[in-house]
Write a structure and sequence with these properties.
This protein has 346 residues and is of the alpha+beta class. The protein contains 10 helices and 12 strands.
Length: 346
C-alpha cells in the first residue's frame, strides 16, 4: 500500500502542481491505471501472481506513455478525455486525429531549422529538441530543455558544458514558460553564449549562433549588495551596461511544508524599465539566487542580438527598479539582493 500511495503522490506532484497540459494527461492515465492495478492485485490469491501482474502492468504503462500522442493546442479539459479515448478507442479515429496533430507540429518544428545551413555539432535553445534531435550532429547539453534546469546546480551543468564541449552552432530563441522572467531559464549559460558565440543570422524562428575561434573577454564585476524588506522597491544601479543580479528569498517553515505537499504561491518580480513600462514575471527562487541577466530586459531574439552590437541592449529596456512580491506566510520578509555589471570586449 505504501508503494501505491507514493506513486500516486509523486504522480500528483508532477502532473498537477504545475498544471501543464501534456503532464496532466500522463498523470490522469497513470492514476487511473494504478487504481485498476491495485484493485486487481489485491484480489489475486498468490504473491507470485501479484508480482507477475505488476511487472506486466508497469511494462504496459511505459508503452502507453511512450505512444500517447501529446497535445500541442494547450487545452486542459480535454486531457482526461484523451486518455480515456486511448483506452477505449485504441488507435481509432479520435486517437489517430491527435496523432495527426502531433505529426503536423513535428513537421512545422523541423521546418524552422530548414532555413539554416547547419554543419558540425549543433544545440537548440530553449527547448524545441525536435528541430535538431534527428540530425547526426545534435550535441545536447546535460539538461537539454532550458525550462527543466530548475536549480542552480542543473543550470551550472549546462554552463560548464559550454566551456568543456561547446557545439559548433546554436539555434537560439527566447521562449520562457509559465510567465517566468525571460533571462532566468539557463541563466548561467547566457554569459558563456555571449562570450563564445557570434550572431550569424536572425531567422524567422531562431538566431543562428556560431562558435568563435577564441572567446571574447567577459567578466562580471560586483557593484552592490543589499538586504531589504519584501515591501520595498529596489532601485537598480544607474549604468548603461548589462546588470547581473542575484536575488535570495528564503521560505518559512510553512513555506517548506507547503512546497513539499503541494506548492507555494509564486514569487513575482515587478520590473519597471526606462520606457516607463512595468511588467510582472514569475521568479524561480533557486535560479534567481544563482544569478541572471536582469537588465536590459531581453524579451525576444532581436533583444538578445543587440547585446552583441556594442549598444549593451535596447536602452529603453534598461531596468530602473524592481519589486519582489511574496506571500508573507510562506516566505521570509528579508530579501538579499546583489548587483554586478557585465563587461565584455570584442
Amino acid at each position: 500500500m505504501t508503494h501505491y500511495t507514493s506513486v500516486i503522490f509523486f504522480t500528483f506532484k508532477s502532473g498537477f502542481v504545475r498544471w501543464d497540459t501534456a503532464h496532466t494527461a500522463i498523470a490522469y492515465g497513470t492514476i487511473i491505471l494504478f487504481i485498476i492495478v491495485y484493485a486487481v492485485s489485491i484480489s489475486l490469491p498468490k504473491e507470485n501472481s501479484r508480482q507477475s501482474f505488476l511487472v506486466l502492468t508497469f511494462a504496459l504503462m511505459l508503452l502507453l506513455i511512450d505512444s500517447f500522442p501529446r497535445r500541442t493546442d494547450g487545452r486542459l479539459v480535454e486531457s482526461l478525455s484523451d486518455v480515456i479515448s486511448l483506452v477505449t478507442d485504441g488507435w481509432g479515429p479520435h486517437t489517430l486525429a491527435l496523432q495527426h496533430d502531433h505529426d503536423q507540429f513535428q513537421e512545422r518544428s523541423e521546418a524552422r531549422a530548414a532555413e539554416f545551413s547547419l554543419s558540425g555539432s549543433v544545440d537548440v535553445y530553449p527547448d524545441l529538441l525536435n528541430v535538431v534531435a534527428h540530425r547526426p550532429g545534435y550535441a545536447p547539453r546535460p539538461v537539454p530543455q532550458s525550462y527543466a534546469a530548475l536549480s542552480t546546480h542543473l543550470a551550472r551543468l549546462n554552463s560548464e558544458h559550454l566551456r568543456a564541449r561547446p557545439p559548433d552552432q546554436i539555434l537560439f530563441d527566447i521562449a520562457p514558460i509559465d510567465g517566468r522572467f525571460p533571462a532566468i531559464e539557463d541563466s548561467l549559460s547566457w554569459p558563456e553564449i555571449i562570450a563564445r558565440y557570434a550572431v550569424v543570422r536572425n531567422g524567422a524562428s531562431f538566431l543562428l549562433l556560431e562558435r568563435r575561434e577564441r572567446p571574447r573577454a567577459l567578466r562580471i564585476r560586483r557593484l552592490a549588495e543589499r538586504t531589504i524588506s519584501a515591501t520595498q522597491t529596489i532601485a537598480i544601479p544607474d549604468t548603461p551596461k548589462p546588470i547581473w543580479a542575484s536575488i535570495r528569498v528564503e521560505k518559512t517553515l510553512i513555506g517548506h511544508v507547503a512546497s513539499f505537499l503541494f506548492k507555494t504561491p509564486p514569487v513575482i518580480m515587478r520590473v519597471r524599465t526606462a520606457d516607463g513600462e512595468s511588467n510582472d514575471f514569475r521568479l524561480p527562487l533557486d535560479l534567481a539566487a544563482g544569478g541572471f541577466l536582469l537588465s536590459p530586459v531581453i524579451l525576444d531574439r532581436a533583444d538578445f542580438a543587440s547585446l552583441y552590437e556594442g549598444t549593451n541592449g535596447n536602452p529603453e529596456s534598461r531596468v530602473i527598479e524592481i519589486h519582489i512580491m511574496v506571500a508573507e506566510r510562506f516566505f521570509e520578509d528579508r530579501i538579499r539582493v546583489s548587483f554586478a555589471v557585465m563587461e565584455s570586449g570584442r
